[in-house]
Amino acid sequence: MKKISAKCAKLALIVASLTACIAVGAQEIREHKMKLGYALKEDHPQGFAAQKFAELLAQKSGGKMHLQTFANSTLGDDKQMIGALQGGVQEFSIQATSPFVGTVRDYGMLDFFFIFSNEKQADAVLDGPVGQKLLAKNLDKGLVGLVFLENGFRNITNNKRPISRPEDIQGLKIRVMQSPVMIESIQQLGANPTPLAFSELYTALETGTVDGEENPCPIVESAKFAEVQKFYSVTNHVYNSFVLTASKKWWDKLNPAEQKIVTDASLETRAYHRKLNREVNAKCIAALQAQKMQVNQVAPAEMSRMRDKTKGVMDKFGKDFDQALLKDFLAAIDAASK
Ligand code: TK8
Questions:
Q1: pLDDT digits over 131-155, tens only?
Q2: What's domain 31-322's architecture?
C-alpha cells in the first residue's frame, strides 16, 4: 500500500507542477514583431488610430509587442491586405468594411444606403450583439475582426456640378468601393459606378477616368481631393466603418494573456479613434472650403428622394446575407433610433 501512495504522491506533484507551468505559460508575454497596414495618409485619423494601437500594445506588454505601422497602401491595397492577413504575412490592418465583402459577405449589409441616421445609432448597433456577430463572421475566413472603427458618413465629390437632387447625379462616372451593394446603390441613384481600390483613386480623378467619388470629409481633406475635385455635396448617404482586423494564423499562436492585451488595446483604440474622427469631421467642411472646394448641403426632401431611389437594393441583395443576422441588424437599427 505504502508503495502505491508514494507513487500517487509523486504523480500528483508532477501534475501540480505541470499545471503551474501551463498556467505560467498561459500568462507569459513573449516578444512579438507585428505589421499593420492601412490605405490613408498618416495625418488621417486612420493613421493616428494605427499609432495609438501600437503605443497601447507596447505599453500593455511591457515593451514586448512591437507594432510597425505602414500608411498609403504600402503593404498593398485593401483587398491585397486581406489576403496577406489570411496568409499570415501581415498581422493587422485597418480598412473600410466594404472591400471585405468578397470574404466576409455579411459586412455587405453595412453598405445599405440611408440606414443609419447618426453616429450614436451606429455605435449602439456596431458595439452591441449584432456587431459582435458580424465580427465573428471573420473567424472561418482566417481573420479575427477585433473592433469597428469609424470612417464616417460618406458624401459625393465630382467635377461636373453641385449635387442638390437625384437628377444631378444622372450619368456621372462615380468611383465606388469594391462592394456589390455600393455598386448597385450608386447605380440606382442614376450614376455609372466604377469600382476601384482606394490606392488608384487620386489618379483616376486626376486623369478624368471618373468624374467623382464618395467618401467622408476627413478622407477628402487628407487625400487632398480638392486638387482634382471641384464640388463636395453633403448627401450622408451611408455610414461607413473601418474595421481593425488581425490574422487568425498569427492570433492562434498567442496565449490568453497576449490575446487579452490585443483585445484591450483594440477597445481603447476604438474609443480614442471615434473621438478624434468626430473632432476632425466637425472642422472638415471649413477645411475643404479653405482648399477652394465648393460645398453644398443636399436638402432633407431631396435626400429622402435619394433614399427612395435606393430602397430596392435591400430587396435585391438582402437574400445574400445571413437572414437571422440581417433581421437582428435591422431590428437593432430600429431600436437604436428610438
Ligand atoms: C481605406 C479605404 C477608404 C475607403 C474607400 O481604408 O476606399 O473609399 O473609404 O477609406 O478603404
A1: 999 999 999 999 999 999 999 999 9
A2: 3-Layer(aba) Sandwich (3.40)
